[in-house]
Design a protein that fits this description.
Shape: globular
Largest sheet: 3 strands, parallel
Number of strands: 3
Number of helices: 7
Strand content: 5-15%
Mean pLDDT: 96
Order of helices and strands: EHHEHHHHEH
Strand order of the largest sheet: 2-1-3
Low-confidence stretches: none
Length: 138
C-alpha cells in the first residue's frame, strides 16, 4: 500500500539528530525508510514546503531540497480541493476543526486510496468522521 507521509514523520527522519530520537521515533523512521525503499512513500507540495521552511543554513536547505526532489508529487486538482472542503465541512459539523492543509492531505490520500503516515493525533479524529486509512506502525 502507498502512504502519504505527513510532515512530522519526514521531520523525524530528515531534520532531527538520530541520537536525539526515542525508541518509538526510531521505529517510525525505519518504517519510513522501508516505504521509501519500496517506492511507496508519497509527498505533496504543502508538506515539502513545511519541511523546507525555517532552515537557516543555505547549504542544509539545498541538501534537503535536493533529497526531496527525488520524490514525485501527485497532481493535485480541482476535485482534491473540493473534496478537502467537503471533508472540512463534515468534520466541522461534528465539532472537529482542522487546517486547510490537513484536509487537503486527507482528500489527496482518500481519493487515491492511500494511507496517511503521521504522528499528528488530529488525523485520528478526522479518521473517525471521514473513514481515512492511517498507516499503522507496529
Amino acid at each position: 500500500m502507498t502512504a502519504l507521509v505527513d510532515t512530522p514523520v519526514w521531520s523525524l527522519a530528515l531534520r532531527r539528530k538520530h541520537s536525539d530520537l526515542s525508541a518509538r521515533e526510531k521505529v517510525l523512521i525505519r518504517a519510513l525508510e522501508e516505504l521509501v525503499r519500496e517506492g511507496r512513500a508519497q509527498i505533496v507540495g504543502a508538506i515539502r514546503q513545511e519541511l523546507l521552511s525555517g532552515i537557516r543554513e543555505e547549504e542544509r536547505f539545498h541538501r534537503l531540497r535536493n533529497y526531496l526532489r527525488a520524490f514525485d508529487e501527485p497532481s493535485i486538482g480541482m476535485l482534491d480541493y473540493e473534496e478537502a472542503a467537503r471533508m472540512h465541512n463534515s468534520c466541522r459539523a461534528r465539532g472537529i476543526a482542522g487546517s486547510a492543509i490537513d484536509f487537503l492531505i486527507c482528500a489527496v490520500a482518500q481519493r487515491r486510496d492511500w494511507h496517511i503516515f503521521t504522528t499528528d493525533h488530529d488525523f485520528e479524529r478526522y479518521r473517525r468522521v471521514l473513514g481515512l486509512k492511517l498507516y499503522a506502525v507496529a
